[in-house]
Specification:
Layout: H1 12-22, E1 28-32, H2 37-44, E2 61-65, E3 68-71, H3 76-83, E4 91-96, E5 106-112, E6 118-124
Parallel strand pairs: 1-3, 1-4
Antiparallel strand pairs: 2-3, 4-6, 5-6
Helix pairs in contact: 1-2
């Protein structure tokens, strides 16, 4: 199925709302970053966060809002594998639709666009 341009941002509201309801159950959430994603997250979760600044300490983190980390990669699972995350902690990982499925984490959910293409895949450890 070919992705249609009018469906470009389909799934963004769904994924940030999902993360908003699930984030407190995890020690850390890694979500793919694009320019709008932190704004979608704040808006659709009714958060007032005045200090939305980039993270200069970690080159793979674009922004952090509480325990939600917006990573500079379309595939958060790749970042998680590179960073060798602490196995004693609970992680929620959100990959963009074009990422290769991974067997390192348990698939939780798939978010699709109105045109039927895959927008995001949610994993946990």
């Amino acid at each position: 199925m070919k992705h249609k341009i009018y469906a470009r941002n389909d799934g963004n509201k769904d994924i940030v709302t999902y993360v908003g309801t699930q984030a407190r159950k995890f020690d850390k959430v890694l979500i793919t970053y694009n320019d709008q994603m932190p704004i979608y997250y704040l808006f659709f979760n009714n958060l007032r966060y005045r200090n939305l600044t980039s993270d200069d300490k970690d080159p793979v983190i674009a922004f952090q809002i509480n325990n939600v980390y917006f990573v500079k990669d379309w595939c958060a699972t790749i970042i998680a594998q590179r960073k060798h995350l602490d196995p004693t902690k609970k992680y929620l990982l959100i990959d963009g639709g074009n990422c290769v499925p991974t067997t390192h984490y348990y698939e939780q959910e798939k978010i699709t666009r109105s045109d039927g293409t895959l927008a995001f895949t949610v994993y946990k450890n």
